[in-house]
Amino acid sequence: MKRPESGPRRRRRWPAIAAGVLTAVPVAIVVGVWLFLRGSLPTLDGRLPADVHAPVEVLRDGLGAVTVRGAERGDVAWATGFTHAQDRWFQMDLLRRAGAGELAALLGPKLVAIDRQRRIHRFRRRAEEALATMPPAQRLLLDRYVSGVNAGLAALSARPFEYALLRTRPVPWQAADSLLVVYAMYFDLQDDQMARLLSRGLLRDHGTTAAQLAALLPDASVYDAPLDAPAIASPAAALPASAPAWWGPPASSPGASRTAAMERADAALATGSNDAAISGTRSATGAAIVSVDMHLALRLPDIWYRTVLEIGAAGAAAAARTRLVGMTLPGTPLLVVGSNGRVAWGFTNSYSHVVDLVELDLDAKEPLRVVDERIEVAHAPAETLHVEESDIGPVRRWGGKAYAVRWVAHDPGAASMTFVAMESAATVDDALAAGEAAGLPAQNLIAGDTTGRIGWTIAGPLPDRRTSYAATFPRAASAPSGDVRGWRAFAASHPRVVDPPSGQLSTSNGRQLAGDDAARIGDGGLDLGARGRQLRDDLAALGARTDEAGVYGTMLDDRALYLAPWRDRLLRALAADGAPSAQRAEFERVVASTWTGRASVDSAAYTLTRAWLGALYRRLFGRLDETMHAVDSEASFARATPRWPAVVARLLDEHPSGWLPAGARDWHAVELAAVDDAAADVLAGIGVAGAKGEQPARLADARWGRRTTARIAHPLAAALPLASRWLAAPADELPGDSHMPRVSAPSFGQSERLVVSPGHEETALFAMPGGQSGHPMSPWFLAGHAAWADGGRVPLLPGPTVHTLTLAPANTP
Q1: How much of the chain, in percent, has pLDDT values that exceed 90?
Q2: Are 651 and 661 in contact (CB under 8 A)?
Q3: Dist CA 122 CA 575 (whole Å)
Q4: Does residue 690 surpass a pLDDT of 50?
């Protein structure tokens, strides 16, 4: 028998064995991870048993666009839920948790602060109450969807990869969760009204007179493009002789890159969405054309899921079948925007006044109830939140004051499945009625039908009241009961504009109406209006006959029509500088010579002009912003009024001596000081000379594309730096900006582009920044992104089928 090796020879083999083990272990880990990730990809082909009455087909094209085809609506809802769960489970989970204030239970202690802010609304309880009164047909549709969602999750071979990273497991879907997805959209679209009201209250209470408030907070501007008039005739309030005591620049010095005040001003410009309709009198086919590009936070996967729902027995006549084409929101079974073949529709946020803050007099022993909410925290002890509630609404505290929050989202019917009525709408009138009854955040709804008619209304609940100027500030506890406590019911009717003589309608978050009905909508932070005016004029320029491609082009308009007059002002100010510094001379040269007339990625002139306007803002409102920011991080003068550029323009035109910031000898000096501020901010943003051999930053290097370089990533990308390249879209430099139809920012912008003519879906056009799948190993994770970034488009209808999955009853052969 051979003896075991011993001594030096045996010891010499250990390094080789150890090296082999160390090599094999990482390989095994990589293989294991790869297999696990593969296991969480969806099933694309074959046949699976399903809780459906008849077989349902799930077809996918080369971009992953989904067609769900079944004999009855309930089965199609089941299959839609199955598909959503397989492709987008983590997104759905985040949405329901965002609506309920339950993010920390999944993502850990860093999300507790957000949960505390949101949990006071107790939307999970409200969702459960809504389910108890939901009409049976809607509840059945929702239950079928929920069953499909949980079946889709269970059919994955492995849990979605995010849950392995977070060391947890998915929690099954419930019917209330789909309503919580709707409540999550309330937070996205209406929650900032609290910061607006707070900002206006801080402005009012910080030594600002009524006359000064009237001048600083105009209710309209020259940019407004209402649907019922060419413009809004609203004379400007007289400028008082002197400015408020807080007037002027901040006490702190500029930050390392851009000023905090300018950052907050930019954040307040992040308004969302354009939609439009061209009537049949101006379309090539005689049917209406509807377009929509909703501006939201950009992430991977994209919020929308491109879907075709085909309902009807196989072989049935076309009239007996329904085809819904457009986008669904994972977590709900309904088509959000798109076409049903007879009517097409789109949304933009209406910024209706739907939130009130009522200051409570705690010294008067305002009766409050306290409800304890348990906040679960992943891998940490749970926390208890003591929610205070008044008879008006839940209580929030800012700056030592307590406010009751009165929000239309708190009322029964605010979140529901009633929008399912849009699926059967046959005319514009049907569509507007379906929108007005919908349980969703109040939106501008534009619709068009196959006969060429077009119309606009507010979809979703509006308070049953008329908004007064006083209502745009926090109210006193003594406010008349009918003004705040009394608007329990929704408005019975909504304003409408139908078939205007111009043959077009469009909304872009600005003021919708010039007439008396504007007060029924109110102002919850309406946009300045420059973007809406540019879109309106773009549509008019399409002429007497146009098509989907022509309308699609209006969404890509990045011309700097709003900023061009500011550039002219800037050049005039620099030309009048008798002894310019070298930096001011360079500023003038770059602004004069590199202007492209667009927010193009190569334009340094656009960057400098934009920075100068921001610096002017800071020179006038910076001190106030510092005070506001100490109370709430989102409060600012720009939050108080998105029309602040109109206020600045008026001051520069009228040169009121009583409004000069302290230390400025005249308004020309203010303009030039803002040039110096802008230059410093821009150079700091580019980065001055660092490592040896680097060249100092130059103003000519301030290309606009540096500011708009895309940062579109999966929510967990920041926590996985080594894997971030697989969890993010390319860092494209994107043309566009806030006050033009092509809205662009690093993580905010056009979450989709869609143009469709009902009855002509085969010529409809589409693009979105992410792909259909939320899985980075899927070929569809970024499918279509390049077309979106380049301003391209793909057909809205799916291409040739490359995958077919049949979901069939278990006893079907």
Answers
A1: 82
A2: no
A3: 58
A4: no
As given in the structure block, the two tokens for residue 666 are 């005249």
**CB 349, CB 271: distance < 8 Å:** yes
Provide the CA 583 distance to its chain's centre, in angstroms: 38
Q: Other C-beta atoms within 10 Å of 394: how many? A: 21
DSSP state of 358: E
Query: Among candidates 83, 91, 74, 89, which has minimal Cα distance to 48?
Result: 83
Contacts of 245 (CB under 8 A, 6+ apart): 207
* Cα–Cα dist 116/642, whole Å: 28
Q: And the tokens for 577?
A: 């500088």
Write the single-letter amino acid at 635.
A
| Region 608-627 average pLDDT | 96
Q: How confident is the model at residue 26 (pLDDT cuts 50, 70, 90)?
A: low
DSSP H helices, 375-464, are: 428-436
Q: What residues have CB less than 8 Å from 305, skipping those under 6 apart?
A: 66, 84, 87, 88, 327, 328, 329, 330, 772
At 536, give phi and psi (nearest 5°): -55, -45
Alpha helices by DSSP H, listed for 523-603, are 530-540, 548-554, 564-575, 582-593
Measured CA to CA, the distance from residue 657 to residue 100 in angstroms comes to: 51
Element (H, E) at 454: strand 454-459
In angstroms and rounded to an integer, the radius of gyration of the C-alpha atoms of the chain is 28
Please, which residues have CB within 8 angstroms of residue 173's CB and are 6 or more apart in sequence?
Answer: 81, 85, 92, 96, 146, 149, 150, 153
CB contact at 8 A, 305 and 87:
yes
Closest by CA position to 124, among listed 187, 175, 180 = 180
d(CA 678, CA 672): 10
Q: What is the pLDDT of residues 367-392, one digit of tens each?
A: 899 999 999 999 999 999 999 999 88
Is 174:96 a contact under the CB 8 Å cutoff? Answer: no
How would you class 804 by CB atoms within 10 Å of its CB: exposed for 0-12, middle for 13-18, buried for 19 or more? middle
Structure tokens at 708: 């708009």
Q: How confident is the model at residue 471 (pLDDT cuts 50, 70, 90)?
A: confident
Phi/psi at 296 (5° precision): -145, 175
Is 351 within 8 Å of 271 (Cβ atoms)? yes
The DSSP bridge pattern shows strands 803-808 and 46-49 to be parallel
Give 420's contacts (C-beta < 8 A, 6+ positions apart). Answer: 138, 141, 334
Calpha distance 637→617 (Å, rounded): 9
Cα–Cα distance measured from residue 333 to residue 146, given in angstroms and rounded to the nearest whole number: 9
What are 594's two structure tokens? Answer: 């590199």
- Residue 52 in tokens: 């459906």
Per-residue three-class SS string for 238-307: CCCCCCCCCCCCCCCCCCCCCCHHHHHHHHHCCCCCEEEEECCCCECCCCCEEEEECEEECCCCCCCEEE
Residue 775, both tokens? 């899985």
- Burial 327-338, CB ≥16 within 10 A → b, else e: bbbbbbbbbbbb
Tokens at residue 174, please? 């419930």
